[in-house]
Design goal:
Elements lengths: L1 H16 L28 E2 H9 L7 H11 L1 H22 L4 E12 L4 E15 L4 H67 L5 H35 L21 E2 L11 H22 L4 E12 L10 E10 L7 H67 L5 H36 L8
Parallel strand pairs: 1-4
Antiparallel strand pairs: 2-3, 3-5, 5-6
Helix pairs in contact: 3-5, 4-5, 5-6, 5-7, 5-9, 7-8, 8-9
């Protein structure tokens, strides 16, 4: 008994000395004071959150707010992650319950046939057991579950952010597809008018048969483009319906428009990025859980102390059970690992290596987020410049289209020149629509990278 006491004291001192502190994640030493390609003077710019709220409250957003609310309520990915949060909350409750004593009531009845007689016994016992958390093992396990619970909450926020961003992107892309459909449909109508004029001139001997064939070919090509664009529009609508939890029948109505974003917004400082981005929060919380798991693995190498108590009654007849003498017991036990072929030590090393992996995941996500922000900023600058050039190109192309047909009717140019001018005009108009849409969706990607709460409708 004395040797066991000495062994316990030695293990106690060892446990106090052999602690491990996981290293803090290294901080990127090349973070700039300001974002590249962006003005960060808050006195001159509207914040990116205020810009988004202003858009949602404007008539240009149409029914987008309703669609976002539907997605938050019915999207399957969000519902699944919400269940994960609830399940992890229960796991945290279980870890907290381990810090409390456990009670159990046991009733047993038996009959035995001996060589000479039949005997019976009845017993009723109330038992209690409690593990003394000497090294804080149970507390560390509770912290692991707490960090895991917080990480599932961060994952839920990330999922909501992703789903809402997808809703907005599909909404804008659908409006873009609708505008392109209207543009192509208008061109088909113009082609039909041109064909009628050319066919009338051919019958009067003013135009050649070649011009009639070219006009018919152009009309058929335009009608095919209209049909293709309508199909694309319906696909986008069905994708959006499926995303928000509706049956994908392609009947969702749209009433919004795509605003042209010609103003910059205040983004905050690069050093503030980790406070808002849910992906970074998730990686950080997973790292903290892995770090605490090292402490759990380390503390499992040392003795555990437990107290077991019971009180009960026993008798041969069930009728005499409650009136029988009460028997109680109190047992304290200490269990310490002696030999396990290095298994517990290896578990500590495994936990350390796992924590280092989570640390690298965090740093990788951090760099990827900075990359996403800088790319989105540069993309916005590039798209804005392209918009200005394309707007001039559209004005010139429309003027050239009108002039070319007038000159064709006067016999100054061939109909091929008219077709080329019409193609340039449509390309210029469609490019302008696409650039306007890309500017908006790029701004949403920027907000996602910065951690702006897209799902916060209040």
């Amino acid at each position: 008994m004395r040797r066991l006491t000495y062994l316990f004291l030695w293990a106690s001192l060892s446990a106090c000395q052999a602690t491990y502190q996981a290293s803090e994640p290294e901080i990127l030493d090349d973070i700039p004071a300001q974002w590249a390609n962006s003005s960060n003077n808050p006195s001159e710019l509207l914040s990116i959150d205020d810009w988004y709220s202003a858009y949602l409250s404007s008539e240009q957003s149409g029914n987008l707010t309703e669609l976002i609310a539907q997605a938050l309520a019915h999207n399957i990915s969000i519902q699944k992650q919400a269940l994960s949060v609830s399940a992890q909350e229960k796991a945290l409750n279980n870890a907290q319950a381990e810090l409390w004593p456990s009670l159990s009531l046991d009733f047993s009845s038996s009959r035995q046939q001996g060589s000479s007689a039949l005997s019976s016994s009845q017993s009723l016992d109330l038992s209690a057991s409690y593990e003394l958390d000497i090294w804080g093992k149970l507390k560390s396990q509770e912290k692991v579950e707490a960090f895991t619970y917080l990480s599932t909450q961060a994952e839920l926020e990330k999922t909501k952010q992703s789903v809402v961003a997808q809703v907005i992107t599909l909404y804008i892309q659908t409006i873009e597809a609708k505008q392109l459909y209207e543009l192509f449909n208008e061109r088909a109508k113009n082609s039909q008018q041109n064909l009628d004029i050319i066919d009338t001139g051919y019958k009067q001997g003013l135009n050649s048969a070649l011009d009639v064939y070219l006009a018919r070919n152009e009309l058929n090509s335009d009608l095919a483009t209209v049909s293709q664009q309508l199909n694309l529009q319906q696909q986008l609508i069905r994708q959006l319906e499926n995303l928000i939890g509706f049956y994908p029948k392609g009947a969702l109505a749209f009433s919004g428009s795509i605003p042209y974003l010609n103003d910059s917004v205040y983004l905050g400082l690069p050093s503030q990025l980790t406070k808002h981005n849910p992906s970074l929060k998730l990686e950080w919380l997973e790292l903290l859980a892995a770090n605490e798991q090292i402490a759990v693995a380390h503390k499992l190498r040392f003795p555990s102390a437990q107290i077991n108590a019971s009180i009960g009654k026993a008798s041969e007849d069930l009728s005499d059970l409650l009136s029988s003498d009460t028997v109680w017991s109190l047992v304290g036990s200490i269990v310490t690992p002696i030999f396990n072929a290095g298994k517990l030590k290896n578990n500590v090393e495994i936990a350390k290596l796992s924590a280092q992996q989570f640390e690298l995941d965090y740093l990788n996500e951090l760099r990827a987020t900075f990359l996403a922000v800088e790319n989105a900023l540069f993309q916005e600058k590039s798209l804005t410049e392209r918009y200005e050039y394309q707007r001039e190109a559209r004005a010139n192309a429309l003027a050239a289209q009108e002039l070319s047909f007038e000159q064709y009717q006067k016999g100054l140019v061939t109909y091929t020149t008219v077709l080329e001018a019409q193609t340039r005009a449509v390309d210029a108009q469609s490019s302008l629509i696409q650039i306007t849409s890309s500017l908006f969706t790029n701004r949403i990607e920027l907000q996602v990278a910065l951690g702006s709460a897209l799902h916060n409708l209040n």
